[in-house]
Specification:
The protein is mostly helical. It has 3 domains: about 10-110, Fumarase C, Chain B, domain 1; about 120-200 and about 220-360 and about 455-465, Fumarase C, Chain A, domain 2 (Up-down Bundle); about 370-430, Orthogonal Bundle (Ribonucleotide Reductase Protein R1, domain 1). About 60% of the residues lie in helices and about 5% in strands.
């Protein structure tokens, strides 16, 4: 069989590459993971050049079978041991070994510049779909916890000081809202990247009259890219993927921080599951929150990847530059980090055990009903600023006395205003304090029941939609 050239670019050179440089500049050690995307893109390109008359029908069939055979047979180990320069070179060598000199036709009308742009888009698109699936599973886990919590209450905090009571479900639904925003960011990124660079050539467009819609359709893209220079140099989608991941990382870290705090003896609001914790090599009593601490730590990787990509891209002239090879590893880092987190987080969340009694007890001290008390006076006709002052004075008096507002007698309360009456005590119970927040987005019990049902509906709609999207694209890939 005919052997492919040792290098895809060797014809112009008289002097062999410096061995150390040659090894240093190779990307196969990390871009080898793009084999599925490279094979899919190569099959799409084969169909496009067959439509242009470059491949005969029998040659197309042979080429497609050869590419399928490479994907079925090749392992990570065989890629790692190859002397190929990159994944594109690897597939060309493997296809030549599989079908002979016919393989050398496949590169007609294309460039590695458009190949890597296409492969990376496909990889990011797949990663986004996997990330969204993981986020939906985590959202479902939080919704299950919220339903179980029912009307259990806990303190909320501002400035890390107790503020007002909220339903545990309300707190959990706050993270569901963050997840839904994260999903929308990934969706936006996916929509913007879903255009096919194949047919862009090295920089100026293919030199053959290719029907670019063929490859775009085969790969499930919305359409071909509109400008060849932009298509071969664009890594906005990689940066945007990392930036969406970094925003998610911030939310993950906040969630992890709250769970870490709430699981301490000082708070005692929840028990972390033993199956997601470890102990101390020195202190026998310890149960350490390793998963939540690692969540905080790994969020830094996500932030770092976004910064690295922005730094790599900020000064590059059009179009392709070798610097862009360095964009791949941060993208892989983001995908791997998110994949590892979202594989564990739903199960971890479902295994959490809340101490509702400790949470409720914490709502009963620290004057968390002070806002409800001021609202009581507002309903009596007192301007809010005066109501705030009167309740502030009552709080100060209660602090000196060592009791809560509801423990004061009516006579004691009336020294701060004649508006106080016997109905004050019902207005500052935990239930009344929760229910006075009876607005859209508030923690009133009926409002949270409605919010839980509405969040379930939104998550389910996304789950249904993404199931259909993945089925549709799988049918394109299998064609």
């Amino acid at each position: 069989m005919t052997e492919a050239p040792a290098k895809m670019w060797a014809g112009r050179f008289r002097v062999a590459a410096d061995p150390q440089f040659e090894a240093w500049q190779r990307s196969l050690r990390f871009d080898g993971r793009l084999l599925p995307q490279e094979v899919a893109a190569s099959k799409a390109h084969a169909r496009a050049i067959a439509a242009a008359g470059i491949l005969l029908p029998a040659e197309l069939d042979t080429t497609m079978r050869g590419l399928d055979a490479i994907l079925a047979r090749v392992t990570r180990g065989s890629i790692a041991s190859s002397e190929a320069e990159d994944i594109h070179h690897f597939v060309e060598l493997a296809l030549t070994a599989e079908i002979g000199s016919l393989a050398l036709k496949l590169h007609t009308g294309r460039s590695r510049n458009e190949q890597i742009a296409t492969d990376l888009r496909l990889f990011v698109r797949d990663s986004i779909d996997g990330t969204i699936a993981g986020l939906l599973d985590w959202a479902l886990a939080l919704l299950e916890l919220a339903a179980e919590a029912d009307t259990a209450a806990m303190p909320s905090y501002t400035h890390l000081q107790r503020a007002e009571p909220v339903l545990v479900a309300h707190w959990l639904l706050a993270y569901v809202e963050m997840i839904l925003r994260d999903i929308s960011r990934f969706e936006d990124c996916r929509a913007r990247l879903n255009f096919c660079p194949l047919g862009s050539g090295a920089v100026a467009g293919a030199t053959l009259a290719l029907d670019r819609t063929i490859a775009a359709r085969e790969l499930g893209f919305a359409a071909p890219t509109a400008n060849s220079m932009d298509a071969t140099s664009d890594r906005d989608f990689a940066l945007e993927f990392a930036q969406a991941a970094s925003a998610l990382g911030i939310h993950l870290s906040r969630f992890a921080e709250e769970l870490t705090l709430y699981s301490t003896a000082e708070f005692g609001f929840l028990d972390l599951p033993e199956e997601f914790s470890t102990g101390s090599s020195a202190m026998p009593q310890k149960k350490n929150p390793d998963l939540t601490e690692l969540l905080r730590g790994k969020s830094g990787r996500l932030l770092g990847a976004a910064t690295a990509l922005a730094t790599l891209l900020k000064g590059l002239p059009l179009a392709y530059n070798k610097d862009m090879q360095e964009t791949q590893e941060p993208v892989f880092e983001v995908a791997d980090t998110l994949g590892g987190i979202l594989e564990l987080l739903p199960g971890f969340s479902r295994a959490l055990t809340f101490r509702y009694d400790r949470m409720r007890a914490a709502t009963q001290s620290g004057f968390l009903n002070a806002m409800a008390a001021a609202t009581y006076l507002v309903h009596k006709g007192v301007p809010f600023r005066k109501a705030h002052e009167k309740i502030g004075n009552a709080v100060r008096y209660s602090l000196d006395k060592g009791c809560e507002l509801g423990d004061l007698s009516l006579d004691e309360l009336r020294q701060f205003g004649e508006e106080f009456d016997s109905d004050f005590f019902a207005a500052v119970t935990l239930e009344a304090t929760l229910d006075c927040h009876d607005v859209i987005g508030g923690t009133a019990r009926e409002r949270v029941r409605g919010a839980l049902a509405e969040a379930r509906s939104r998550v389910q709609a996304l789950s249904d939609r993404y199931g259909r999207v993945q089925e549709s694209e799988a049918s394109h890939a299998g064609a």
